[in-house]
Write a structure and sequence with these properties.
This protein is mainly α. The protein is built from three helices and no strands. The chain binds heme C (HEC) (2 copies). One heme C binds next to helix 2.
Length: 150
C-alpha cells in the first residue's frame, strides 16, 4: 500500500517537471519565432500589407547547389500557363523548340515514364514544371540560410 502511494507521488512529480519543461520550451521558441510575411497579427484581424515581390532575372541561370537539384528558374513565368490543353514552358524548352528559342532543353530525365521506360514526349510526371522549378524573388530571406552546396 505504502509503495503504490510513493510511486504515485513520484509519477506526479515527474509529470509536473515535464509540463514545466514543455512550457519553458514553448515560451522560448515563441520568443525566437520568425516574422512571417503576414505579420504577427491575430488571425481575425487584417494581415500586414504584402509588398510586391519582384522576380529576379539571372543571366546565364543560377548555379546549382547539388547535382540533381532542379535548376531554379532565372526568368519571369507569370505569362506561361500550364493547363490540360498546353504547356507554355514547352514553347521554349521542348526538344523541338529549344534551339530556335535559345533555351536549355528539359533534362533527359524528363523523358522517363513511371515504368522506367523512355517516353517520346515529355513524361506525365514532369508536365507540371513548377512542382520542381521555381523562380526567385528579390527579397531578403526571413531566416539566415547557412546551407552550403555539395
Ligand atoms: C520565351 C521562352 C521561354 C519560356 C516560355 C520559358 N522559358 Fe525557361 N528559360 C528560357 C531561356 C532563354 C533560359 C536560359 C536563360 C539564361 O540562362 O540566361 C531559360 C532557363 C530556364 C531554367 C534554368 C535551366 C538551367 O539549367 O539553369 C529553368 C528551370 C526554366 N527556364 C524553366 C521554365 C519553366 C518552368 C517555364 C514555364 C513556367 C519556362 N522556363 C518558360 C526561355 C523560356
Ligand atoms: C519532378 C520534378 C521535375 C519536374 C516536374 C520538372 N523538372 Fe525539370 N528538372 C528536374 C531536375 C531534378 C533537373 C536536374 C536533373 C536533370 O537534368 O534531369 C531538371 C532539369 C531541368 C532543366 C535543365 C536541363 C539541363 O540539361 O541542364 C530544364 C531546362 C528543365 N528541367 C525544365 C523543365 C520544364 C520546362 C518542366 C515542365 C515541362 C520541368 N522541367 C519539369 C526536375 C523536374
Amino acid at each position: 500500500m505504502f509503495k503504490t502511494i510513493k510511486s504515485k507521488t513520484l509519477f506526479q512529480k515527474s509529470l509536473t517537471i515535464f509540463l514545466l519543461a514543455m512550457t519553458a520550451v514553448m515560451f522560448s521558441s515563441a520568443a525566437m519565432s520568425v516574422q512571417s510575411l503576414r505579420g504577427d497579427r491575430p488571425l481575425d484581424s487584417k494581415s500586414n500589407k504584402v509588398s510586391k515581390h519582384k522576380v529576379n532575372t539571372e543571366e546565364g541561370g543560377y548555379d546549382r547547389n547539388y547535382k540533381l537539384q532542379p535548376p531554379l528558374i532565372p526568368h519571369k513565368i507569370e505569362k506561361y500557363r500550364i493547363t490540360l490543353k498546353g504547356n507554355g514552358c514547352l514553347k521554349c524548352h521542348s526538344k523541338k523548340s529549344h534551339k530556335k528559342e535559345k533555351a536549355p532543353m528539359v533534362g533527359k530525365s524528363h523523358f522517363i515514364g513511371r515504368d522506367g521506360k523512355e517516353t517520346k514526349t515529355i513524361s506525365k510526371r514532369r508536365y507540371f514544371c513548377n512542382q520542381c522549378h521555381a523562380p526567385q524573388t528579390k527579397d531578403s530571406p526571413l531566416v539566415e540560410n547557412v546551407y552550403e552546396g555539395i
